[in-house]
Structures are given as structure tokens and as C-alpha cells.
């Protein structure tokens, strides 16, 4: 089996545009970075040149937000071609996308919309993931999303959906532990049971982030520190999946880079504790 | 059970219909989708937003999103045509220069992400010498980042100040302001052009032969120095080849 990623088994940081200059200047001791693929789809210019400079020093993971894997529109081959061009240029350590759809009837919503876990959706997403992987010539990781809506048409639990998707296509899972907790708060999903239901060998990466619980619904803003309950779930995930490359994601109300580094240090400490227990 | 496509079409309708959905959970999506688009447009059109004011700009952004929803999963491409939309929009109509300001910002955004061009000035000069020696008509290729703009207003000053265009000679409709937006290395840049050089580069850009483009410039200004301008534009990377 082709390795799902070549990411270091360590805690990386999601790199956003306001931090790029700082990172290139200070060269922080971060083991790897992840960026949103679409932000580097340009054919040239400063952003792409900066990413190449980052890549010269660190492993980089390309995390897509716009391929619309679950849409019943035809797969956007122009979008996929741009991802392929970027991957050829950056030689990423991982490529990931979301278990969601974000466009229909030619209209894009630029948001991660929920997909019902039905047999039809499984067949559909499996075919699309296979096509993406054939085009890129590598396996991708597919991430579970946070959602505010559950379809009554759900036919199977999401971990089973992901396990079968991985079995059929050879893709891996990017397990977002924060998304599980947000779904637990919003829908009563049992996040710990979800983790226990995902087959260990298919998890290629873990995401950690913060949410906003100030309103009636918990909103997955990626704009706060990782919550204590999410750290606990992360430890349960490490106990089950072993050492897995883990990413600190922060997208809104972006703080100074040192705040993200501190979050990554906590994740690394969790990994080291788990490794010590396993030794 | 409805098909996946039916479910997606229904969901899409619920989160984008003019009337807010009854279920507050769908309302979260509706809010996120609208605010993502407002923020994306506001990031591209910073000066336009500052001049229009946040409320007015966001109302225009919402109307634009209904008229021209995104057609790509790459949000960086969203906003093409916003300037033309503003021309017919009452919120921008009270300040005539706003569509031109938006046009300048879009050109700048495009220049920032346009394709690379590897040709060095020495290579361009060589290609030019070869084309001249071949004794047949040829045109000049401009860097892919180049956009030529004409405005009746002093839109560059407005963009630099994030403030309304100042009155003065540049706002005279006969003179106007002519701009070249392009990328030099990694940095997008913008400069004012005189009437003749603007006409020359615009003709080159639309595929005219070097001779026809130069004649066009000379008609507007008999003092137009082709050799000097050509040398300068090859040196600064605006002219990148011949065709």
C-alpha cells in the first residue's frame, strides 16, 4: 500500500497569509505546515513564490476546501488540474479534501456543506475520490466536517462510511477531532464512540482547532484555542490510532504566530505522553 | 427516498432563497455563505469598501452575490465584474468614480496572481532584432499581468488614499487618467501613463503591429519617442516578447 502521507509524526501548524513573512524570517522550529490549496492556485506571483520558499525548508500539506467531492455536479476538472499543477510544483507531503459538497447546478457556495451518509453518496464519493487520486497519482485524505444539519436520510454511521470509502479507494481519513466535538455539542453525536469506530490504519492526519460556543449553536470558527474536551478526545484518538501527524488550525481572528506554536507544543506533549505509554 | 441530487438542490435552495429558512440550523449556512462572500469581496476591493462605507458596500456585495454567484471553488477568483455591476448600482451611483476604483482594484488583484514570464530583457531584445531583420510586420507581447485602464477621474489618488477622487486636472473629462497595472517581479504595481504611451501599449495589447501601434501614438503626440519608450518597457519587463 502507498503511504497515505509523508508528514512527520509531529504537530504542524496551518499557515495563513498574515504569518508567512514571519515564518520565512524567523524560521520557527515547526515540523511541517499545511496551507489551503486554493490560495495557491495562481499561475505566479508573491503568494506562490512564498509557498515555494516555505516548501524549501519544511514539508507542506495541501488542504483543499473547494473541490466539492460530494457534489452531484460533474467533477470540476479545471479545479482538479490546478491542484495537480500545484502538487507538481510543491511536492506536498499530503493532499487532503473534505467529506462534503460545496456546489450544485454550477453555483458554488464556498462553504463545506453536509453530505448524507447514504449508499448512493458512498458510491458517488468513492468514484470521485478514485478519479482525483488517479489524476494526482497519489492517495488523498478525506476529512470529516462539522455540520449544523443532519439529513434524516442518513443510512449508515459516518465512521462506517469513511471506512468503506477508504477500503474501496485506498484513500485515508483526516480525522478532525474538533469537528467531532462540535457535532457532539450540536447534534449529540458520541465523539468518543466515533473515534472508537474508525479503523486505526486509515487515519493519516488529525486536525485540532477551536470553536465559538457563545450562541445557541456551537460554530466551528477555527478562531479559538483547542478546548479541554477536544484535548481529551485527542488523547483518546492517539491511544487508538498511534502517532499521527497532527495540525493546529486557526482561520478567523488569527492571533500572533506564537499562540499557534504554543498549541502545537501541547499537541506534541500529548504525542510524547502517548509514545511513552506505548513504549 | 430522494436522490442525492434532489437533497443537494433542496438544501441549496433553502440556504440561498430570498426568504430566510425557517430552520435556524439552515440559517447558519445561509449566514456563513453570505458573510464569506462579503469578506472575499471586501478583501479584494478594500479601497472601494472604504470609500463606499461598510454598510453600503456590503449591501452592494449581497446584491452582486445574488446576480453573479461564484462559479468556482476558488474564492480568489470571485469578484470579476463587480465594477460593471457597480455602474448600475444605486449605492455606488452617488460617487461616479467608484466603478473605476473597483476596476483598478480588480486589475491589481489579477496582476498579483497572473502567470510568470521568464523572458529576460536581453532575450526580448534579441527576439526584437530577429523580428526586425526578418522584414515582416510583428507586434509586441506584453507581460500577462498587464491591464491598461482609462478613467475620467483621478482614481489612482483615490485608491492610494482610500478616499474619494480629488478634483483637479485629472478629473477633466478630456484629459482623464490613464493607468498601467502590472506585476514587476512578485509585486503588483500601478503607474500613470501619458496619452500617447497608453495608446501605444493598448494597441500592442490588442495585437496591432509595432508600426501601427507607434503610428497611433504619434497621431496623439508627435513627440512620442518610440525607441526610447520601447527600450524602457523592455527593461522594466512590460514588453516580454514579439509575435
Structural commentary:
Chain A has helices spanning 17-26, 46-57, 77-90, 119-136, 158-169, 177-187, 191-197, 228-241, 257-278; strands spanning 11-14, 33-36, 60-63, 94-98, 101-104, 107-113, 141-143, 172-176, 203-208, 246-248. With 279 residues, chain A is α/β, with parallel strands linked by helices. In chain A, strands 1-2-3-4-7-8-9-10 form an 8-stranded parallel beta barrel, surrounded by 4 helices. A two-stranded antiparallel ribbon of chain A has the order 5-6. In chain A, helix 5 links the parallel strand 7 (141-143) and strand 8 (172-176). In chain A, helix 1 (17-26) packs across helix 2 and helix 7 (191-197) runs parallel beside helix 8 (228-241). Chain B has 243 residues and is mainly alpha-helical. Residues 169-174 of chain B have low confidence and may be disordered. A 3-stranded antiparallel β-sheet of chain B has the order 2-3-4. In chain B, 55% of the residues lie in helices and 11% in strands. In chain B, helix 2 (24-44) crosses helix 4 and helix 3 (46-52) crosses helix 4.
